[in-house]
Design a protein that fits this description.
It is a single chain. The protein has 511 residues and is an alpha+beta fold. It folds into four domains: 98 residues, no CATH class; 42 residues; 190 residues, no CATH class; 69 residues. The chain contains 24 helices and ten strands. The strands form three sheets. It has a four-stranded antiparallel beta sheet with strand order 1-2-3-5. Strands 4-9-8-6 form a four-stranded mixed beta sheet. The radius of gyration is 27 Å and the shape is globular.
Length: 511
């Protein structure tokens, strides 16, 4: 029975935060109201002796998260990019979680590589270093390929990592179920579905064959992006628990002093990070969804280098158009259009008042655009949007969770490079270019051409489909004895669809 085990896991989470001193740090950093702060301490204090000790040499919050395991570390990595939410001091402490965790033994890593690739490490690599970076899921070694002499990065999964993640995710499911049971209003937010989405992302990250494919696809998509590089994977030296990529030298994106020493303009670099993310999401529908400082470096020539492709986001073309229109609507302060897009996409129930929703969106946008550049925040916008959409019955869109989460992370990275960056000004050219290419007359022509191609392929089936639809409409009327007008409407609809299909097929022949 997993219930008691999961309850114990959650109790130990709170106890660990209390025992390590992290509870107080988090409550202060998040500016929790005094009454709730006191309640949290009262609930945590009696159980403190049950908590994990962690590494006493680490700051409290980092100590607690590393003691609790990989899923908690992932959460800490997200917070490390948001000094505007948790404060600069705590954000700096949490950056330790990005690539400075304790490594596992070199001999164990070599044994895993040999087992996965089917040959001794000495035959595959002429050099194989101690770990150069260690994060929550894997660690990286610098090596040299024996056959070609190429310098490479070899990433190896931590032993037992999948079992540890499954244990944490199981507890998260339990917590989500308890929240839905105790607070029925939260069911609109679909907490269990959110955890299921997180589970699918994490388990995908634990199969490095998928990461190898993701790296190859991402490199191909971004090959022409100026100022951006993706190391190419080496397929025959990669497997389920090992991935080998070309080595790319650079300084960590979180080290502003080192970036300044390279002579790189941090203001331009911050804007580039944001624009590249939006370009990949909108143009390709395939984006790096773990863009914290630990996965980004800056080359000597100023190029941005991306690493770690375990978490990639993908959104379909329709969702991209919706997302772009929502962003552009806010940029132009066209709240009526933002409201229309939400209704057209089915994000807000059709029985709600669109005018009232548009006014509510104005209450979200206007205060933000009235701020100076240093206070304009995508995170605040998403938070306000969350509050407004809750009132209008909008359900959590699991397909957008990764996109929204990454947007918040990227904003945090951009602000770490340039605290005064104007997020909307930086984003506007990318969004406008996407809309120009995908929502204008040329895009309509492309959509019609693709529709005609589909209809042309199914052309031989159309007469039979039309006959079956007409027979069904006739039989339905006779069975249900519906008014003739209803049947006529059905026949008109079917006939119209068939006529449209024929015209589209004819248009295809002319294209």
């Amino acid at each position: 029975m997993r219930g008691p085990h999961n309850l114990w896991r959650l109790i130990r989470t709170g106890a660990t935060f209390e025992r390590t001193g992290a509870m107080r740090s988090v409550l202060v950093a998040m500016n929790v109201p005094p009454r709730l702060r006191l309640l949290a301490r009262i609930l945590g204090w009696p159980w403190a002796w049950l908590g994990l000790k962690g590494d006493p040499s680490l700051p409290p919050v980092t100590r607690a998260l590393t003691a609790l395991g990989p899923a908690y570390i992932k959460f800490g990595q997200l917070l490390s990019t948001r000094p505007d939410i948790v404060g600069q001091e705590l954000a700096d402490q949490l950056r330790y979680l990005q690539d400075k965790l304790p490594p596992f033994d070199l001999a164990e890593a070599r044994a895993m590589v040999s087992e996965e690739l089917g040959q001794p490490v000495a035959q595959l690599f002429s050099e194989f270093s101690e770990p150069v970076a260690a994060a929550s899921i894997a660690q990286v070694h610098r090596a040299r390929v024996a056959e070609s002499g190429q310098d490479v990065a070899v990433k190896v999964l931590r032993p037992g990592i999948e079992r540890a993640f499954r244990r944490d995710i199981d507890a998260f499911y339990f917590a989500a179920g308890m929240i839905e049971w105790l607070m029925p209003k939260t069911r609109r937010l679909r907490p269990t579905d959110v955890i299921a989405h997180f589970e699918s992302v994490v388990l995908g990250e634990l199969d490095l064959r998928l990461e190898t494919a993701a790296a190859a696809e991402f490199a191909a998509n971004t090959e022409a992006d100026e100022g951006f590089r993706v190391p190419r994977p080496i397929w025959h030296l990669s497997a389920r628990s090992v991935i080998t990529l070309g080595w790319a030298e650079g300084v960590p994106l979180g080290d502003n002093v080192a970036i300044d020493a390279l002579g790189v303009d941090r203001k331009e670099l911050g804007e580039r990070v944001l624009r590249l993310f939006l370009s990949h999401a909108l143009r390709d529908g395939y984006f790096h969804a773990d863009m914290h400082q630990g996965n980004l470096k800056v080359a000597a020539n100023g190029d941005l280098i991306a690493y770690d492709f375990g978490i990639m986001g993908q959104i379909d073309e329709y969702t991209r158009r919706v997302y772009a229109e929502i962003l552009m609507g806010f940029i132009h302060k066209d709240y009526r259009r933002v409201a229309e897009v939400h209704f057209e996409a089915g994000y807000v129930p059709a029985d709600r008042d669109i005018n009232e929703f548009a006014r509510a969106l104005r209450s979200v946008g206007e205060p933000i655009f009235g701020m100076d550049a240093t206070r304009i925040s995508m995170a605040k916008l998403l938070n306000y949007l969350f509050e407004v959409t809750e009132r209008f019955g909008m359900e959590t869109r699991t397909e957008l969770i990764l996109l929204q989460r990454t947007m918040v992370v990227v904003e945090g990275v951009a602000r770490s490079l340039n605290p005064s960056i104007n997020i909307w000004k930086a984003a506007r050219p990318v969004v406008e270019e996407y809309i120009r290419r995908n929502l204008g007359p040329a895009a309509l022509a492309r959509d019609l051409a693709r529709t005609a191609q589909v209809l042309a392929r199914f052309g031989p089936h159309l007469p039979g489909a039309l006959e079956a639809a007409l027979i069904h409409a006739r039989d339905h009327q006779e069975t249900r004895r519906e008014p003739a007008g209803t049947n006529r409407r059905t026949l008109w609809f079917v006939s119209g669809a068939a006529t449209g299909a024929v015209l589209a097929g004819a248009a295809m022949l002319l294209l």
